[in-house]
Design brief:
- This protein is mainly alpha-helical.
- The chain folds into 2 domains: 56 residues, Homeodomain-like (Arc Repressor Mutant, subunit A), CATH 1.10.10; 140 residues, Orthogonal Bundle (Tetracycline Repressor, domain 2).
- The protein is built from 9 helices and no strands.
- The longest helix is centred in the last third of the chain and has 25 residues.
Length: 205
């Protein structure tokens, strides 16, 4: 089965550029999936496996760290694009939103698994936090709630990102054997309900 990857921006580039970017991304994911720790990888190794020069690697990916961050950002941004504004309207009832997100993650486990298992949490959480910040802005706009202060937002985003990474880490270690709806019941209680209380509490202040 060929590795599935989200609809990333290379598809909008020149076909030759897209092919080289895909090859670089796949070379990294293959190395990680084989059990290589991210810290042990080199640009020369990934470039060789991708069939490109080091110069092309630096042009297309920047660095190994940036490559990981790009993959994580594209994956979660793709999830965000699939969530229409109506599904962000509070009160968010049931677990359908969380199930949708988890279903997507499971469908892309061949990308997500190696990144979560072999890369540091900081490389994962930085791009995830960017997507979460965008999502929080959408939730605030859709529900017309006051914008959180910079302090509250920073702690909220960091907390949500940490919880998501922790849940994914356990899910990956368990081989994605747990059903998305089973995990969603837990994540909704932990995240969705708390987020709504914080935003609605700000609105009532």
């Amino acid at each position: 089965m060929q590795d599935q990857m989200p609809n990333q921006s290379p598809s909008r580039l020149d076909p030759r550029v897209a092919r080289s970017e895909r090859a670089i991304q796949q070379a990294l994911l293959t190395a990680l999936a084989c059990g290589r720790d991210f810290a042990s990888l080199t640009v020369s190794e990934i470039a060789e496996k991708a069939g490109v020069t080091r110069k092309t690697f630096y042009i297309r990916a920047g660095s190994l760290e940036q490559l990981v961050e790009r993959l994580v950002f594209d994956l979660f941004q793709d999830i965000a694009f699939q969530i229409d504004d109506e599904r962000l309207r509070m009160p968010i009832l049931g677990n359908t939103l969380s199930v949708t997100i988890l279903d997507y993650c499971k469908a892309h486990q061949r990308v997500l698994g190696p990144l979560v298992r072999q890369c540091s949490a900081s490389l994962f959480m930085k791009p995830l936090s960017k997507v979460l910040t965008q999502m929080l802005e959408r939730v605030t706009e859709v529900n017309q709630t006051p914008t959180l202060g910079s302090l509250e937002q920073a702690y909220l985003i960091a907390t949500i990102a940490s919880v998501i990474h922790g849940i994914l880490q356990v899910w990956v270690e368990r081989g994605f054997c747990d059903a998305p709806d089973q995990i969603a019941n837990f994540t909704d209680t932990l995240l969705i309900e708390g987020l709504q209380k914080i935003l609605q509490g700000e609105g009532a202040a």
